[in-house]
Write a structure and sequence with these properties.
Blueprint lengths: L14 E2 L3 E6 L2 E10 L3 E5 L9 E6 L7 E11 L2 E6 L4 H8 L3
Antiparallel strand pairs: 1-3, 2-3, 2-5, 3-4, 4-7, 5-6, 6-7
């Protein structure tokens, strides 16, 4: 019997985008790519060996406008990328890009 799909319980919807992201861990920098993004976090494919609970610095490079710099916490590691929780809400910066109200 197949397992039923998990219900998405996110409070903040994610948008699938492939943006370049620089993940900075200590003094190391890794050019990475987003899988999806919301105003509170992102899923990122990276070669960085991240562990849950690690604090990182991100530089997201949207197709329009200046890069977004934000701290983040590694929330979990999935097979398709690392889920990162931003240290602050970046909604005001994403509003123009995603037409967020």
């Amino acid at each position: 019997m197949p397992t039923p799909p998990r219900q998405d319980k996110r409070q903040h919807p994610r948008t699938r985008v492939a943006w370049p992201i620089v993940v900075k861990v200590g003094t190391s920098r890794y050019l990475s790519m987003s899988v999806d993004i919301s105003t509170h976090g992102a899923k990122v494919r990276t070669k960085a060996q991240l562990k849950t609970g690690t604090t990182v610095q991100l530089e997201l490079v949207p197709p329009e406008g200046p890069p977004l710099r934000v701290g983040a916490l590694v929330w979990r590691i999935d097979t398709d990328g690392s889920a990162l929780l931003f240290s602050r809400d970046i909604q005001h910066r994403l509003a123009a890009i995603f037409s967020i109200d």
